[in-house]
Design a protein that fits this description.
Blueprint lengths: L14 E2 L4 E2 L13 H7 L11 H15 L6 E2 L1 H8 L9 H6 L22 H4 L1 H7 L3 H5 L8 H12 L4 E6 L2 E5 H11 L3 E4 L2 E7 L3 H10 L4 E6 L3 H5 L10 E7 L7 H8 L10 H4 L4 E6 L9 E9 L4 E9 L4 H10 L3 E5 L4 H14 L2 E5 L6 H12 L9 H10 L2 H16 L12 E3 L10 H6 L15 H5 L5 H12 L5 H16 L3 H10 L5 H9 L5 H20 L1 H7 L3 H13 L3 H5 L4 H6 L13 H19 L1 H8 L7 E3 L2 E8 L11 E5 L3 E5 L1 H33 L2 H24 L4 E2 L2 E3 L6 E6 L2 H7 L8 E5 L5 E5 L6 H17 L3 E2 L2 E5 L4 E4 L12 H15 L5 E5 L7 H19 L2 E5 L3 H4 L1 H4 L4 E13 L6 E11 L7 H7 L4 H36 L1
Parallel strand pairs: 3-6, 4-8, 10-13, 12-15, 13-14, 21-26, 24-29, 24-30, 27-28, 28-29
Antiparallel strand pairs: 1-2, 4-5, 5-7, 6-7, 8-9, 10-11, 11-12, 16-17, 17-19, 18-19, 20-25, 22-23, 22-26, 30-31
Helix pairs in contact: 2-3, 16-18, 21-33, 22-33, 23-25, 24-25, 24-33, 25-27, 27-33, 30-32
Subcellular location: Nucleus
Function: Component of the post-replicative DNA mismatch repair system (MMR).
GO molecular function: ATP binding; ATP-dependent DNA damage sensor activity; mismatched DNA binding
Length: about 1000
């Protein structure tokens, strides 16, 4: 029977039974700050006329915020928050729930005689915070001179001491609390309310939205820790510690490179209409990169640098060790290739390396963390790495082979591994590092690494203006259907091939896909279409962090691939020509031969619902889980056995247990039969037609079922981890299958590009002849931007063993830079294995492709425009070979005309006479063109075509029409004043500039003639 002190709660009144106060606290734990109109509407029924009440004060705060039009969190004053705290989160709790959860009682029995079905709430999550926040120990009350922390605050301080560098979210029932600075950061970022609670500022987020906030914080560069309760209210109530503080432990720590797991897969798939939502690319985990430089004497300009990079979400592990100059150009190149999300560094670094990494990280919101220098010491590193790789479950198992494998790595790489192992162990992600056979060098002899200057100058992976993929070569070539295929294609583009047989194999496959009518290729395309990100799901399986639904998708995809390819087995043998494709098609079914065994034991409906308790069709392999199922079935049968006795007591023919607002096993009694209800029964809720009760026997059995379910949840989680672990034993076999699929996706992507109008297959020469001939070539990026309707002016290029240098001149805005970029992009596309935008291309293979385009300063690194220009040129001059392709755009313009022209002249002469590599040189310096007289056979001088029109009557300046075609011979002038006129420079300034230009040109002409006379006189004297 209800308690006499119970007060009636009108429907939707929002009244808390604890003190008959409006329960407004729920409006401050949501995902965003509610508008004032919403609060007013929700509180209209309260008729709270007291202007000094907490409700009114908080409403005024929201009105003030809304009127200011400034997005900011609502900070509740301490005085108001203290009043608010007296009734915050004290929602109605029934007597039955007190029995179920004795911890929720703190004094008087507060039962409810309610007629609102919504009044019955879950006691397990509603009262945890009240108990812990208000339970101040007697020792704290003794002294007023010291800060009096609540048990929960003490627990927070202990965790914060251990994890001071992380934002901590602490589970408190159905929400997660943040304290102090953590609360302030989250409140400002997400516009959440925060207020003083006891000794700290506090903010709250709903448990259902936890991983959304974790994800957003991590993507903004924060390290985030999630601290969870290690015991549930149901189990705690049945134990001896029911009145103690809930025990909590760190459940997981997350950073940008370790953001993986089933929780974030769900967060990525949500359609969240929020200004904080990130793109799919941002949501994906990036590389964790550990960089180390060996100590070097101060006088020595070069340093040995190494890195190891791991992408935990895909299982890729790569490394490199190299000697870099003081400008760190090679390190910058690798940073752009890896594009890490997080960087680990030793505590001591050279100033040059520190500046480069700081500048690179700041621009891209990359998180950096310093590691103690001792961990990188090679003696310590060898011991710690050897110990790690001799643990059980590590490959290779033979200690001799292991030692040889480790010692074969460069010592700086071993130092990086020494730092990565303990760091990844904190996140339980060290598994991939245990397989040394899968740690690969970033660069091999089969491919070339495009320099950072080339990647940026030619817009290879991103455009140079907004740094987005749109407007890049990757944007042009990316027609992949899968995420893992897209990642592989990006790798292909950044590392073009330089081995003839591999390049021809790719081109042959692309050609076969274009021209073949075989059903096999249609089947493959159908397989690849709309595949989930199998690579990331497989890695989640490896880490045992995969959801039931994702694992089901993985198994179904594998099963479909195997079935489809096996059905086309006879056609593959007779209709597919490429040996490489035949290997892939025959290999895939064998790699996936164990999939059906796992798929057959999954209940697909339960997997789709994420129900781990019932996901297994056969639970015999998991006896603990099976026992839980049996105990629940027994308890439910006991409940059913009570039905006849209940019908007899209530004088009913029959009845069914009702479930209302998650309250199960309710005995629903019609109002006309209420007199038959025994006094020992507990009333839960009522309506006009029915009242709902629980008998003592039902309460006991339902509590028992809840306790078993809590135990079952833990058993199911362990069983699921064991199931994933069994599948993960074949991880590398399945990873190889996904690599095959990614390779197929890249071939189909290149085939789609090749089918476009005016694309041709490049003819790769392998005879030793140096040649580069392009007929009617077009710029691939501009061609796509302009579309089919716009006319792009195509141009030719011819370079061979005799003519290895082309000097490009012409008017400003005439298309010089576009022309040389176009040529380099065609070369790169050809060596990727792609068709190219031209009528015909015949070329020999380049071992390196360099492009130094434009100029800009790097103030954060203390490097001027000219220093950047010179450092990039220095890198090219030091590393190019006779088989390289070099593009230099207006070298020397960052300094005085004389110095710039001299440097440009000397650099170009070195490339022509010493290196004898193919070179395209854009310039406005007349003296550079004079090299044509020194090397008449090796140099071809061209300019971009234009038409001069009549002079303007007002400015006396000729107008120029650009034709954008390549014309042999030098350009008369650069026509810079014409460009200035197009830019809107005032006419009086243009006239003065025109006059000054004519004067300078006249002086230059006179000086040139005088120089020619002196040269003739000197020759005459020598004779």
């Amino acid at each position: 029977m209800p308690n006499k002190r119970t007060k009636k709660c009108s429907k939707n009144s929002g009244i808390s039974i604890a003190n008959n106060q409006p329960n407004i606290s729920k409006y401050f734990i949501s995902d965003s700050s509610y508008p004032t109109s919403f609060l007013k509407k929700r509180h209209a029924a309260n008729e709270d006329t007291n202007e000094h009440s907490p409700t009114k004060k908080i409403l005024k705060l929201f009105e003030k915020r809304d009127s200011s039009n400034i997005s900011q969190p609502c900070v509740i004053p301490e005085a108001t928050s203290e009043k608010l705290h007296s009734f915050s989160f004290k929602k109605t709790i029934t007597d039955e729930e007190r029995i179920f959860n004795p911890e929720s009682s703190s004094g008087a029995n507060k039962s409810l005689k309610g007629n609102d079905e919504k009044c019955c709430l879950n006691p397990v999550s509603e009262t945890i915070e009240d108990i812990e926040s208000n339970a101040v120990s007697e020792q704290q009350a003794v002294s007023n001179s010291r800060v009096k922390y609540t048990p929960l605050e003490k627990q927070y301080l202990n965790f914060k001491e251990k994890y001071s560098d992380a934002i901590l979210l602490i589970e408190c029932g159905y929400k997660y609390k943040l304290f102090d600075k953590d609360a302030e950061i989250v409140s400002k970022l997400f516009n959440l309310a925060y207020f003083k609670s006891h000794n700290f500022m506090s903010a709250r987020v709903l448990a259902s939205r936890l991983y959304f906030y974790v994800q957003q914080l991590v993507l903004k560069g924060y390290k985030v820790g999630v601290i969870k309760q290690t015991e549930t209210a149901a189990i705690k109530a049945a134990g001896n510690t029911k009145n103690d503080l809930f025990t909590r432990e760190l459940d997981a720590m997350y950073t940008k490179s370790t953001l993986i797991g089933e929780e974030f897969a769900a967060a990525c798939s949500e359609n969240i209409e929020d200004s904080f939502s990130a793109s799919n690319e941002d949501m994906s985990s990036g590389y964790l990169m550990c960089i180390y430089e060996e100590p070097s004497p101060i006088s020595h300009p070069n340093l040995n640098i190494a890195f190891v990079a791991i992408q935990a979400s895909s299982g890729d592990v790569t490394y490199a060790s190299f000697q870099d100059s003081a400008l760190r150009n090679i390190l910058e190149t690798y940073l752009i290739h890896i594009n890490p999300a997080e960087i680990l560094l030793p505590s001591s670094l050279s100033k040059e390396t520190e500046n480069l990494i700081s500048n690179f990280s700041t621009d891209r919101l990359i998180r950096t963390e310093k590691i103690p220098q001792d961990i990188f010491d090679i003696t310590f590193a060898l011991d710690s790495v050897s110990s790690f790789y001799t643990e059980e479950g590590t490959e290779p198992k033979n200690s001799t082979d292991l030692k040889q494998t480790i010692l074969s790595l460069p010592s700086p790489v071993i130092s990086c591994l020494s730092a990565l192992i303990p760091y990844l162990t904190k996140f339980k992600l060290e598994g991939f590092l245990k397989h040394l056979n899968y740690i690969k060098p970033l660069s091999t002899n089969d491919d070339m690494i495009l320099s950072s200057t080339t990647l940026k100058g030619l817009d290879i992976l991103t455009n140079s203006s907004s740094h987005k993929e749109s407007g890049s070569l990757f944007w042009v070539l990316n027609r992949t259907m899968t995420k893992f295929g897209e990642r592989l294609l990006k790798n292909w583009i950044a590392k073009p091939l330089k081995k003839y047989c591999l390049l021809e194999e790719r081109l042959n496959i692309v050609t076969e896909i274009i021209h073949s009518d075989s059903i096999v290729f249609k089947i493959v395309e159908r397989i690849l279409y709309k595949l989930p990100d199998l690579e990331r799901i497989l890695c989640n399986v490896f880490y045992q962090k995969c959801s039931c639904l994702d694992f089901l998708k993985l198994l179904q995809a594998f099963s479909k691939i195997k079935e489809e390819l096996q059905s086309a087995d006879d056609k593959i043998d007779c209709e597919v020509e490429s040996p490489r494709l035949k290997i892939i098609f025959s290999d895939l079914p064998q790699l996936l031969n164990d999939v059906e065994r796992f798929l057959s034991n999954i209940d697909q409906n339960a997997a789709k619902e994420g129900d781990k308790n019932n996901v297994f069709r056969d639970t015999s392999l998991y006896p603990d889980l099976q026992t839980c199922h049996e105990e629940i079935a027994s308890a439910e049968q006991s409940l059913n056995n009570l039905k006849p006795e209940i019908c007899k007591v209530l004088k009913l023919i029959n009845f069914k247990y009702a479930t209302v607002n998650c309250q199960k096993y309710l005995i629903e009694v019609p109002t006309s039969h209420l007199r038959s209800v025994p006094k020992t029964w507990l009333k839960i809720s009522s309506t006009k037609q029915f009242s709902r009760f629980k008998s003592p026997e039902v309460i006991e059995l339902s509590n028992k079922i809840e306790q078993i379910k809590e135990r079952m949840k833990e058993c199911a989680s362990k069983a699921w981890s064991s199931f994933l672990n069994d599948f993960g034993a074949s991880f590398f076999k399945h990873k190889r299958a996904i690599s095959h699929l990614a390779e197929l996706d890249c071939y189909f992507s290149l085939a789609k590009v090749a089918k476009q109008e005016n694309y041709c297959r490049p003819d790769i020469v392998n005879s030793g002849e140096q040649v580069f001939h392009v007929l009617q070539g077009q710029h691939p990026i501009l061609k796509k931007i302009m579309g089919e309707e716009n006319q792009y002016v195509a141009n030719d290029i011819t370079m061979n063993a005799n003519i290895n240098c082309i000097i490009v001149t012409g008017p400003n805005m005439g298309g010089k830079s576009t022309y040389v970029r176009q040529t380099a992009l065609i070369a790169i596309m050809a060596q990727i294995g792609s068709y190219v935008p031209a009528e015909a291309v015949r070329m020999s293979l380049f071992d390196k492709i360099y492009a130094r385009m434009g100029a800009e300063d790097t103030l954060s690194q203390g490097r001027s425009t000219f220093l950047n220009e010179m450092s990039e040129t220095s890198e090219i001059l030091r590393n190019c070979t006779s088989k390289s392709f070099v593009i230099l755009d207006e070298l020397g313009r960052g300094t005085s005309t004389n110095d710039g022209a001299a440097i440009a002249y000397a650099s170009l002469e070195y490339l022509i006479s010493k290196m004898k590599c193919f070179t395209m040189f854009v310039t406005h310096y007349p003296s550079i063109i004079e090299l044509k007289t020194v090397y008449p056979d090796a140099i071809s001088v061209v300019h971009m075509g234009y038409i001069l029109k009549d002079k303007d009557d007002e400015t006396d300046i000729e107008s120029v029409t650009f034709l954008y075609n390549v014309v042999h011979g030098r350009s008369k002038k650069s026509y810079g004043i014409n460009v200035a006129a197009l830019a809107g420079i005032p006419k009086n300034i243009l006239l003065e500039a025109q006059e000054k230009s004519q004067t300078i040109e006249l002086k230059a002409t006179v000086q040139k003639k005088i120089s020619e006379l002196f040269i003739k006189l000197r020759r005459c004297k020598q004779k």
